[in-house]
């Protein structure tokens, strides 16, 4: 194990020893290469730099109490990257190649997987870039798919806790028929200003409404939203949100725990009826919401300062599976280091 103060890491970037890369040239993927530099070299005319022809993914490896290192649902991240690739005209990375590269990069950097006790994890960042030199707006011919890893700190330093969110109407993250459902950098560039405003006003994150009617709940920052009432888990159905793998898993667990699951449009007024609400994603699993402010209408939707019982149960169940503490009935985890 590396000598790192695991418990005090942030969600930053710590260089590790290796990354893995694979090049797409002449219409096919080549051999997987192991690199020990974190620099890449490409033409100043590469399509990823000018036209945003790039995509990424985010998942984690967990050092478990049984000594094994597990990765969570990497086949789902592979499938989402394939969907993104189809969306912005890039070649697909097969699930087999994606999984082989994830396992390899984690094994190579296993000394950087934080201790279980620290609550920190190893963040895995796959990245697909169009690298052909051209100035016309059309898809690249050549690509590089690479994966790097970096240890990241525990999301909840003081324990699982709730945070306030704010509805922002002046900015959209994605259009109804745009790229919101894909994990491309442009969506995140579009969110920087609204996120900055939310932070300046003291909120954990911004909340987007649907960009067409400004009527329905969409996403909260870089996370999906869910509300809970009457033993029902409700989450938005929208053509502009990223299909979160955490949300998909929570929907399954909610059903397993005997809840009803509804995926449908959520009008803003319905926020007043939820008993619990949360943001979900790989970073925090669940980030419970204490309240959501709608400053334009002077409204506050309150869910309490402490995480509710369902949120806690869902969080404990999902993290229990990720750390190999609860039976993985759905086969979601892969042991990459025994
Ligand atoms: C915009 C956005 N929505 C939702 C999520 C949550 O997705 P996942 O649960 O797959 O991490 C993410 C990223 O992690 C995201 O960037």
Break the fold down into its secondary structure elements and pairings.
Elements: E1 19-25, E2 28-29, E3 33-35, H1 47-51, E4 54-56, E5 59-63, E6 69-72, H2 74-87, H3 95-108, E7 121-130, E8 143-152, E9 163-168, H4 185-200, E10 205-209, E11 217-220, E12 224-229, E13 232-236, H5 245-256, E14 260-264, E15 276-281, E16 285-294, E17 299-302, H6 309-322, E18 333-337
Parallel strand pairs: 9-10, 9-16, 13-14
Antiparallel strand pairs: 1-2, 1-3, 1-8, 4-7, 5-6, 5-7, 6-18, 7-8, 10-11, 12-13, 12-15, 15-16, 16-17
Pyridoxal-5'-phosphate binds next to helix 5.
Give the % helix: 10-25%
Bound molecules: pyridoxal-5'-phosphate
How many β-strand stretches? 18
Strand content: 25-35%
Output the number of helix runs.
6
SSE order, one letter for each helix or strand: EEEHEEEHHEEEHEEEEHEEEEHE
Mean pLDDT: 97
**Contiguous runs where pLDDT drops below 50 for at least 5 residues:** none
Q: Biggest sheet, in brief?
A: 9 strands, antiparallel
